[in-house]
Design the sequence.
């Protein structure tokens, strides 16, 4: 084991305090400026990285900084996970290599082109309805409704009970932080929601030909086991909706708060994909993820002992002035290549192509159909230990 480190700055900040979940950016700056690696007084067993260079390095060194001990605060080497661990998110090679190959094929670029017309038609239908309505809640009427329709449809999940996906996703991402009030509140519905989720991972509840059924077909072909199949379907259901909802909500918020940028999008709807990408950087859906040191190692020259949890501040890295000029500005003409909002390395979000497709389609339809997008009142936030989420976003859509 490495000797205790005395040269890493210790900060008295709590990433999970309500005020920091509500407005994390002052804390992010303090952590970045303190050094490439910091310790947090309230969490003495971990180290944290908030600069882009170190976050990128940790996420891209999967041999040294593993995911199998959990990508949240809990260390699965020392404690039992609150649910069976993910075969994608909380797995390392060779298991991760096998399971990821199946999901990557199901979500290939060719498949994205095949589903694009269906996703595009639903985007047009939903945006048209919102424009006709005029004043909307950008979250409940649009950012939630679209992913809850198109993605479960593609997976092959039935219509009834889809609201359980929101509850389950909220719980999964809260579980990656401490056992605080946010976790306890979401965990209170654990049993009933988990029963629905796991039932809908079974073959008999999945539409033939959908993404979920294709996972079961991979099990039939011997690529994975039949015991692994429902766990991989669960990976779709637990992470394929919530993150996209928040990405869309944050993009709507960004455009409503920056009318000059929306004017650029109106003038050139082909900027829809960059506008969504920049929103992911500017208001990162996933704020944090953890890795665990598999051996004694160093980060930026600082010793890190084996089995130490490493907190990667994704959102802080995404506004690091060492990486991005004028990082606090939302600029849809920026090319934010290398942002951390969807992870990086072999554990980068397996469904990121779907999220990007959904974001591009919604924003491109809005650009064509909406002359102005304006706030009509204060927004509210839904605090989560991991996600940057809006609860309400009152907007006025002026028809083009």
Sequence:
């Amino acid at each position: 084991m490495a000797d205790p480190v005395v040269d890493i700055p210790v900060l008295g900040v709590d990433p999970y305090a309500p005020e920091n979940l509500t407005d994390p950016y002052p804390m992010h700056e303090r952590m970045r400026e303190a050094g490439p690696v910091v310790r947090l007084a309230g969490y003495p067993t971990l180290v944290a990285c908030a600069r882009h260079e170190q976050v990128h390095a940790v996420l891209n060194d999967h041999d040294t900084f593993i995911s199998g001990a959990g990508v949240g605060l809990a260390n699965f080497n020392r404690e039992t996970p609150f649910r069976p661990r993910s075969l994608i998110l909380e797995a390392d090679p060779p298991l991760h290599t096998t399971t990821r190959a199946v999901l990557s094929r199901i979500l290939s670029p060719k498949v994205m082109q095949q589903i694009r017309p269906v996703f595009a038609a639903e985007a047009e239908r939903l945006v048209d309805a919102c424009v006709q309505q005029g004043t909307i809640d950008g979250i409940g009427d649009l950012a939630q409704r679209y992913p809850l329709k198109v993605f479960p449809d593609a997976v092959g999940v039935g219509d009834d009970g889809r609201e359980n996906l929101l509850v389950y996703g909220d719980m999964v991402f809260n579980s990656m932080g401490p056992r605080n009030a946010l976790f306890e509140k979401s965990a209170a519905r654990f049993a009933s929601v988990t029963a629905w989720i796991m039932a809908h991972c079974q073959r008999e509840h999945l539409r033939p030909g959908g993404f979920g059924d294709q996972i079961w077909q991979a099990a039939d072909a011997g690529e994975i086991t039949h015991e692994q199949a429902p766990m991989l379907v669960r990976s779709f259901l637990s992470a394929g909706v919530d993150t996209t909802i928040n990405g869309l909500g944050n993009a709507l918020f960004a455009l409503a708060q920056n009318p000059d940028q929306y004017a650029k999008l109106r003038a050139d709807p082909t900027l829809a994909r960059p506008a969504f990408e920049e929103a992911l950087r500017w208001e990162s859906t996933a704020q944090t993820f953890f890795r665990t040191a598999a051996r004694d190692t160093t980060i930026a020259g600082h010793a890190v002992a084996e089995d130490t949890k490493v907190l990667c501040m994704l959102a802080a890295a995404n506004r690091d002035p060492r990486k991005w000029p004028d990082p606090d500005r939302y600029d849809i003409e920026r090319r934010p290549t290398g942002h951390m909002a969807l992870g990086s390395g072999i554990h980068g979000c397996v469904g990121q192509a779907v999220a990007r497709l959904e974001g591009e389609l919604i924003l491109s339809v809005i650009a064509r159909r909406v002359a102005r997008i304006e706030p009509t009142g204060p927004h509210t936030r839904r605090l989560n230990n991991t996600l940057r989420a809006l609860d309400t976003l009152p907007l006025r859509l002026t028809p083009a």
About this structure: The domain at 10-399 is CATH 1.10.630.10 (Cytochrome p450). The two ends are 64 Å apart (CA to CA). Residues 1-5 have pLDDT under 50 and may be disordered. The first helix runs from residue 18 to 22.
